């Protein structure tokens, strides 16, 4: 691909080109494998997650993007039989080491799910829930709720109906509510698993704008199906694919990781190039 | 301007012609309706019969006076009504917390692949099918005699608790299981502990379902006579219970007592008390249905 000078493709990138090397990492995966029972869903991933940047995971369905993302904040612990081998370092601490409390990990590394999952409570209580379980004083809640909703670009739409159910909002609003809920506990890293998968283009555009805003303060990892979205929102992109081994079993693998513009414009691996030119160019 | 259609219009019209549901459909519908009618007709006949028989005696004396086997015209069932209330409230206080906690354990904590938990699960299913008289024998042998609690309200309540516990556990588990996994994941991802997730998200969402199951279980307990026959409720009681260690009688037993009298007037009294018992059951079930509809949630 020699489209480097092509202005129309260049225009599809939403972020300034990232440096070749990650200067400051918040997390790092070292030789990470994820298993469901005996099945090795993700094989040997090594990569850093850069601080205050947006890292996108792309790749075909079933290549283990969700599985890997869930190992970043020990959500895999909830699936019976799921197991992580290797090291998932967070500021140098292996979050799977036996003396680490998964509750503390999840407080610092928040997650937004593919399908919006507001609690069956009021909008206010949806946001206040996280701070409340962490023991926040009642007097501070109003302010936290407002601040979180403002940052999630939802405040103007809901400020007059904070006591209506979060489940009565539209899909796009529900997803922003979930992002606000996540911000309310002031995490360090936000993991997003295809946050726009069930949203229309307008709602999607709102969430993407929001991600740009949030990247100033948070480190974000986003799984996306949508190549254009990865190009629009991310600083770095990791391309995954599923290899078939000798026994015919599929294992997810990291093929290529680098600054988004490099991955899209001059991929080093032929599989990345094939996937991107097939779905992007 | 009207459109010009392609020439196959006549054929389409024929194909789309509604000729009513096929015969098989119609006949099957009648069979199903017939099956339903058996239940409804039986219930209606029962209600009508009881009403006609007992209505004349449905007077305030019935709940104001104490039972008597000599003066049917003055006899009432206050001790039985109060006895039933004492027993059922005590049963609720004992079996609901135990049953709901057991359900939480099984749904939220127990590893379903472990042998031990599978065994518990099968046991609970089986216990729900054990005849109530067997619980009566257990209550008599263990609670009344071995624990020496005697023939008292607490013995009856403990026995009935054991009887309906499997139903409470099973229905609570279903209500807890109906809360989607995504709610738990959402809570845990915010740094909530498992207990916070259960107590602040799962349980509030499951309460309507649990309450419905609990009421249905208790309405079964309030109508039970068999196990209590063994537990001494059958003795003739002319005072209201005044505590857990008090002797007692309950409505089904009082009905049984009166029906076994030879004089016609007592049959009428029994029917009148039946109406009250049915009324209480109806109110309990209606409340359960109300709860279910009121809080029904679509995720
Ligand atoms: N809970 C689970 N138990 C067993 N296998 C799973 C589970 N979740 C996902 N998998 C398997 O792991 C592989 C990766 O899945 P996933 O991480 O969901 O892929 P992606 O998000 O890239 O589409 C797939 O083969 C999938 O079938
Ligand atoms: Mg996925």
List keywords for this structure.
heterodimer, A: 281 residues, alpha/beta, Rossmann fold, ten-stranded mixed β-sheet, 34% helix, B: 299 residues, mainly alpha, MetI-like fold, 12 helices, binds adenosine-5'-diphosphate, binds magnesium ion
What does this structure look like?
The complex is a heterodimer of chains A (281) and B (299). Chain A is an alpha/beta fold. Chain A has a domain at 25-117 and 188-276: Rossmann fold. Helices cover 34% and strands 26% of the residues of chain A. A ten-stranded mixed beta sheet of chain A has the order 5-4-1-2-10-9-3-8-7-6. By secondary structure, chain B is mostly helical. Chain B has a domain at 78-267 and 276-294: MetI-like fold. In chain B, helix 7 (153-177) crosses helix 9 (194-223), helix 8 packs antiparallel against helix 9 (194-223) and helix 9 packs antiparallel against helix 12. The longest helix of chain B is centred in the N-terminal third of the chain and has 32 residues, at 23-54. The radius of gyration of chain B is 26 Å and the shape is flat. Classes of the chains: A alpha/beta (281), B mainly alpha (299). The interface between A and B is medium-sized, with 25 and 22 residues. Magnesium ion (MG) binds at residues 65-66 of chain A. Adenosine-5'-diphosphate (ADP) is lined by residues 36, 41, 61-67, 79, 250, 252 of chain A.
């Amino acid at each position: 691909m020699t489209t480097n000078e092509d202005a129309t493709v260049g225009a599809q990138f939403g972020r300034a080109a990232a440096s070749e090397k990650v200067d400051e990492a918040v997390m790092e995966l070292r030789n990470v494998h994820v298993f469901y029972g005996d099945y090795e869903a993700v094989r040997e991933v090594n990569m850093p997650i850069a601080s205050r940047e947006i890292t996108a995971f792309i790749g075909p369905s079933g290549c283990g993007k969700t599985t890997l993302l869930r190992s970043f904040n020990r959500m895999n612990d909830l699936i019976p039989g799921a197991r992580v081998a290797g090291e998932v370092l967070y500021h140098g601490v292996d979050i799977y080491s036996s003396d680490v409390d998964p509750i503390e990990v999840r407080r610092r590394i928040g997650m937004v799910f593919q399908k919006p999952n507001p609690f069956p409570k009021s909008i206010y209580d949806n946001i206040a829930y996280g701070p409340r379980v962490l023991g926040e004083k009642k007097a501070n809640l109003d302010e936290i709720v407002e601040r979180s909703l403002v940052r999630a670009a939802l405040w103007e739409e809901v400020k007059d109906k904070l006591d209506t159910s979060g489940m009565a909002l539209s899909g796009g609003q529900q997803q922003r509510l979930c992002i606000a809920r996540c911000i309310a506990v002031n995490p360090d890293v936000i993991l997003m698993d295809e946050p726009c998968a069930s949203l229309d283009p307008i709602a999607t555009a709102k969430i993407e704008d929001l991600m740009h805003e949030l990247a100033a303060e948070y480190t974000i990892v986003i799984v996306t199906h949508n190549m254009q979205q990865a190009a629009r929102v991310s600083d770095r992109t990791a391309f995954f694919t599923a290899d078939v081994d000798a026994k015919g079993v599929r294992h997810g693998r990291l093929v290529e990781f680098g600054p988004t513009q490099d991955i899209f414009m001059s991929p080093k691996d032929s599989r990345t190039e094939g996937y991107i030119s097939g779905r992007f160019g | 301007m009207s459109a010009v259609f392609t020439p196959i219009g006549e054929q389409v019209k024929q194909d789309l012609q509604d000729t009513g549901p096929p015969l098989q459909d119609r006949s099957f519908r009648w069979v199903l309706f017939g099956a339903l009618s058996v239940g409804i007709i039986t219930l209606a006949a029962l209600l009508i019969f009881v009403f006609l028989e007992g209505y004349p005696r449905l007077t305030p004396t019935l709940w104001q006076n104490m039972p008597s086997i000599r003066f049917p015209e003055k006899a009432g069932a206050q001790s039985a009504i109060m006895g039933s209330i004492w027993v059922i409230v005590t049963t609720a206080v004992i079996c609901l917390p135990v049953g709901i906690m057991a359900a939480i354990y099984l749904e939220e904590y127990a590893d379903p692949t472990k042998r031990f938990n599978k065994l518990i699960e099968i046991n609970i299913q089986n216990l729900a099918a054990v005849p109530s008289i067997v619980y009566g024998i257990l209550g008599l042998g263990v609670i009344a005699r071995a624990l020496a609690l005697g023939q008292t309200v607490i013995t009856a309540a403990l026995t009935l608790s054991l009887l309906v516990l499997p139903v409470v556990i099973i229905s609570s588990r279903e209500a807890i299981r109906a809360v989607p996994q995504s709610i738990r994941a959402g809570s845990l991802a915010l740094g909530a502990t498992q207990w916070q997730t259960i107590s602040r998200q799962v349980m509030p969402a499951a309460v309507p379902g649990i309450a419905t199951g609990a009421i249905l279980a208790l309405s079964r307990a309030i109508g039970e006579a068999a196990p209590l026959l063994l537990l001494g409720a059958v003795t003739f009681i002319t005072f209201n219970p005044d505590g857990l260690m008090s002797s007692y009688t309950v409505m089904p037993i009082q009905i049984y007592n009166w029906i076994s009298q030879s004089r016609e007037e007592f049959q009428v009294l029994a029917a009148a008390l039946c109406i009250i018992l049915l009324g209480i059951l109806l109110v309990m079930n209606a409340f359960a249905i109300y709860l279910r509809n009121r809080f029904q949630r679509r995720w």
